[in-house]
Amino acid sequence: MSGWQTHATRTAYENAWIRVREDDVTRPDGSTGVYGVTEVRHPAVFIVPVTDNSEVLLVRLFRYTIGRDSLEVPAGGSDGQDLLVAAQRELREETGRTAQTWTRLGRVFSLNGVADAPAEVFLARGLADVGGGSLEEEGISEVLAVAWDDVLRMVRTGEIHDSETISCLMLAGLELGRIG
Amino acid sequence: MSGWQTHATRTAYENAWIRVREDDVTRPDGSTGVYGVTEVRHPAVFIVPVTDNSEVLLVRLFRYTIGRDSLEVPAGGSDGQDLLVAAQRELREETGRTAQTWTRLGRVFSLNGVADAPAEVFLARGLADVGGGSLEEEGISEVLAVAWDDVLRMVRTGEIHDSETISCLMLAGLELGRIG
Questions:
Q1: What is the ipTM score, two decimals?
Q2: Do B115 and A115 touch (CB under 8 A)?
Q3: Which of A11, A34, A64 to mutate to test the interface with B (most CBs of B within 10 A)?
Q4: Using CB atoms within 10 A as the burial measure, which of A10, A45, B92, B133 is most buried?
Q5: Nearest-CA neighbor of A82 among A114, A56, A45?
Q6: How many Å apart are CA A79 and CA A90, to the nearest integer?
Q7: Could you report the per-residue pLDDT of A19-40, keeping only the tens digit for each?
Q8: What are phi and psi of A52, to 5 degrees?
């Protein structure tokens, strides 16, 4: 039992990617109020692509929201697709690669104080460069293959500052025996 | 140069915690459109508290947004305070602990496809249990001291599913020499 009660819910804002829902709630302490929840339309998919040389593929793109470049693992919205299919599509679009082996690493939630934003995380191995990416369309300026130790260094120095990318790297590191 | 142009901006939604901003933009490819950005009011602070026995303090709380319990490192909004002061306050409120040594681990950004949600991450060591927490008010049902290996296991099994907590653990692991 969570102790929360929801009495009414309404859409306060929406666009093609997010919806803000306002719920009239009674909190566990008995007080009443409004809880605003930002929902993403569909779960996101995140892919940690690892080459046969144990490098991680990262993409560099400008993030309008935060006004700066970001180095990230490939990711995107699932657009209502099966999550593995969506992950395969995003990997192809953002890096021009396909993968032979897909491993589901788990589901994580971002900004859970204000948002319902689930992300399914996959490890992709056995990569083949088949082209056919749409990097420009995706806003990607560069695809880098980075050795694991350098990836960790970039997390530590802040060169990688995307929170979801860092949590995906943790999940991948555990799966690959690089962490723990 | 990012290649993006912003022509106008307006507030489309706001509550006490978030604001959704809609910008009229020209994208790098020359097309025009509206970019909706969810902004948190103030940067968040995240604290990885590590005991003298190398355990990590985690809090368990129900997250209304995602409808489930979550195991997380202490965190909260900075409410316009100095970020270190805010981190010290959150640690005290959520665990009843103070810390002798504070190390800034960096700044990460969550959900940067749709949000401007920065978080400042701190490592807190030399902990003292001084009480004075307001766990019930914060919705926290339990404070746990978890050995590092068990923390990693809980990330791997999905028992820890908060994305920011996982990225904070990565940053702490690197700083403590547990990772890398």
A1: 0.97
A2: yes
A3: A64
A4: A45
A5: A45
A6: 11
A7: 999 999 999 889 999 999 999 9
A8: -65, -20
